[in-house]
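User: Design a sequence. Structure:
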């Protein structure tokens, strides 16, 4: 298309990884941004397109996720592309690299390009924490966390922001990974972190259990019998690490978006959907419906509740928007001429 000489110049806001570090979003700012997007979703003010995947080659041991959405209260549409490559640690890379593009939903004009690697980690942790805010017991004191992937840090940090745990247990497959993870958490949270050598000692008896493992193929590592009554369980590994019986002990099954959870190749409860254990009939609610006040969250301490989240484009858009707003105030980032 030939550019018309009288067209208003188009500029794109650009935030790289260093800019995002400089913003130093607080825990409250992250949670606040994501909670607004969940409220919009619960009030039917959003559009979520099911994620799609690109697998370049099976030997690469990874894939790309493409997430698309629209958040009406923010007047933004967005597309995020994030890679998820299990062997990246061998190259001293995070497992996930991402880019978020934001657009004017009325004209299609591009508005921003943002490094979405940190966004992916932060918003995933925020969804986990906000799920706990509405679905875990208020007096939860023990956290058991499986996995030390990029999102794991923000799971623990934001959950601890809400609950100030008496005990935090962590485990991952590689000893060097779990030890490094625990050391960072201990330094940042100012409390002792218990490193466990196995899954059972990490999760048995915990009030909140998060399973964010990096299995190469589905394997039932998390046993249903280890889950105590009244616990809040968040399994979201790409490959399932739970037993088919896990949903049988739950009083409520909650997801972030049923459209994404009921289809696709990956996900911790894929087998449960295929077996009919998680369906429109057995699903209690989407988290956005609970946050917006349209469905109930936890109703008593005896309820055992599961929350499965696949990751929402809405969360990426909302957190990207919050970063852009703070960047403008702090004069951080760059503006690029597009047209």
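Assistant: Done.
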């Amino acid at each position: 298309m030939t550019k018309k000489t009288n067209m208003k110049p188009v500029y794109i806001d650009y935030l790289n990884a260093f800019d995002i570090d400089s913003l130093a979003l607080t825990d409250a700012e992250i949670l606040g941004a994501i909670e607004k997007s969940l409220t919009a979703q619960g009030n039917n003010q959003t559009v979520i397109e099911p994620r799609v995947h690109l697998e370049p080659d099976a030997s690469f041991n990874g894939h790309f996720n493409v997430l698309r959405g629209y958040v009406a209260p923010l007047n933004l549409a967005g597309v995020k592309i994030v890679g998820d490559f299990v062997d990246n640690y061998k190259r001293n890379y995070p497992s996930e690299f991402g880019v978020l593009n934001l657009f004017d939903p009325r004209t299609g004009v591009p508005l921003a390009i943002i490094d979405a690697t940190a966004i992916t980690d932060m918003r995933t942790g925020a969804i986990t924490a906000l799920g706990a805010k509405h679905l875990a017991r208020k007096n939860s004191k023990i956290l058991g966390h499986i996995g030390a992937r990029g999102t794991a840090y923000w799971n623990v940090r934001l959950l601890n922001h809400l609950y100030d745990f008496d005990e935090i247990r962590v485990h991952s497959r590689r000893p060097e990974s779990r030890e490094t993870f625990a050391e960072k958490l201990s330094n940042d949270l100012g409390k002792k972190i218990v490193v466990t050598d196995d899954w059972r000692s990490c999760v048995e008896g915990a009030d909140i259990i998060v399973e964010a493992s990096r299995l190469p193929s589905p394997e039932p590592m998390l046993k249903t019998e280890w889950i105590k009554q009244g616990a809040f369980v968040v399994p979201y590994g790409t490959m399932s690490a739970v037993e088919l019986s896990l949903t049988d002990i739950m009083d409520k099954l909650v997801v972030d978006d049923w459209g994404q959870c009921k289809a696709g190749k990956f996900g911790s409860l894929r087998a449960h959907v295929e077996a009919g254990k998680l369906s429109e009939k057995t699903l209690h609610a989407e988290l956005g419906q609970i946050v917006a006040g349209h469905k109930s969250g936890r109703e008593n301490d005896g309820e055992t509740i599961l929350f499965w989240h696949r990751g929402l484009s809405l969360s990426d858009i909302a957190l990207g928007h919050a970063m852009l707003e703070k960047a403008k105030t702090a004069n951080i980032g760059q503006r690029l001429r597009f047209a």
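Residues 11-119+314-337 form a domain with the ornithine cyclodeaminase, domain 1 fold (CATH 3.30.1780.10). The chain has two domains: 11-119+314-337, 121-311.
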